[in-house]
Amino acid sequence: MPVTLNINGEDKKVDVAEDTPLLWVIRDELNLTGTKFGCGVASCGACTVHINGKPVRSCQTNIQDVEKSKITTIEGLSGKTSKAVQDAWRELNVVQCGYCQSGQIMSAVGLLSKNPKPTDQEIDTAMQGNACRCATYQRIRAAIHLAATKLEA
Fold first, then answer.
1. Fewest CB within 10 A of the end CB: N or C in the chain?
2. Greatest CA span in the chain, whole angstroms?
3. Which domains does the chain possess?
């Protein structure tokens, strides 16, 4: 079934079954491999993308449900908030193996876009669905606080 999706500000036409998970369209049809497959059941966060500005797990989102939405992947992040998050990630050396980090960054940008000065509890709640095998959670939290400080400046 032909579907037109708005990915990273561009309309992309794909021909896949309507119940195809968005993750597989992003990775296999559009060759945007920054969004990762982790668990397939929306519990690890590696597949997080933004749909209309909100972090969503793409492994459990069918393309038929997002045809009229604006979808942003890690490759399409832009703007002041995403720059602050990415700069903080680099500055604090958050990444260890890196597999989960695109999902972590997408969730962090989503949080700071709606709450530019979150508390530790608000960060923990927002990031709760993102698993990191390397356990960089303290660095992730510190980077979100640093990004919030950068946004204030």
1. C
2. 48
3. 2-74 (3.10.20.30), 80-152 (1.10.150.120)
- Please list, residue by residue across 26-63, b when 16 or more beta carbons sit within 10 angstroms of its beta carbon and e when fewer do: bbebbebebbbbbeeebebbbbbbbbeeebbbbbebeb
10 Å CB burial of residue 114 (0-12, 13-18, 19+) is exposed
For the chain, the residue count is 153
Joined tokens for residue 58: 């793409």
Query: DSSP letters of 36-59?
Result: PPS-SSSSS-TTEEEETTEEEEGG
pLDDT per position as a tens digit, 71-117: 999 999 999 999 999 999 999 999 999 999 999 999 999 999 999 99
